[in-house]
Amino acid sequence: MNYLQWLTTETPTKFWHDSAIPAEIDAAIENGALGVTTNPVLTYKTLQAVPEFWQPQVDRIPKDCSPAERAEALLQMVATYAAGKFRKVFEETDGQHGYALGQLDPSICMDSEKMMAQGLRYASWADNISVKTPSIKSALPLVEELASRGIAVCTTVNFSVSQAMAVADAYMRGRAKAEKAGIKPKPIFVVQQGGRLDEYLLEVATDSRIDIDPKHIANAGNAICKKVYNLFKSRGIPAVVMPAGLRTVEHLTSMAGADMTFSLQARVQNMVNEADPDKVLRIDDEIPAETIRELYKIPEFVKAYEEGGLKPEEFITFGVTQKTMSQFLWTGWIPLETYQAAPSGRWF
Fold first, then answer.
1. pTM (2 decimals)?
2. φ, ψ of residue 197 in degrees (nearest 5)
3. What is the pLDDT of residues 207-216, one digit of tens each?
């Protein structure tokens, strides 16, 4: 039994696969994956990696559709395939796992009405599609409305305690509406991108010449993730913390035993199993007080770590949020708009 198999069978910790490449999905299922992350970047990567696998479906997309329609059609193609691979898990877990994530167009994620229309289209693809939205102010009404309709939600681009608690509050309002209407609630998966946050804080510390050992910064994402997890538990919020964007083995092992669902790239799965870490529960291990004191030297960490450190209108202006949303747009959605398209499209 490798580490991931031990983690998913002997502890409350679960993981989903973070890739849309078919062979990698199959391998992850063997390791115990219970769902799959798909997004514009991963959709484009699978089209590049195994174009012959997808080509018959690509050929069926109308040539005269708009760039945005083309991107959505490609995302639908990949997300519904992935959802089909986890249909059995969805049924066996009574809708707690077995989802594929359908991520909204990053260029419309400041417009609640446009997100709602797209989110409802995504939800119609399959009942085990979870609509994925960034954790910004405009998404809060979307989270509440989808939850009230019994639609699974995933909130991403989440780097702070404030964002996590805001989307959890929106979900709880929607969940209460669903229950009152006799609708069975579906879960919310709150992504915490710890590795990306660590990288961002290291850039900030370096640029600002803050005297701090990088080993402390390597604990920043996990410190925030553990705080969110404990807040959810203490307040009875049935939201699922989903750590993603992992960079090191410790990003996983330091939270082993948590009732969390990780999103793991194939590279990270292989890295963890090759490292063969000790099979020890560590979720209750606290981040050292010295590390937290050192991290407080970085103002951006304070904003991320303190509950209320960011106001909802500041979610979108947080540096690492802007950086990540831009990456989703320019390395994922825009390439999908023009993938095998006629020589017309979006011009900037």
1. 0.95
2. -65, -45
3. 999 999 999 9
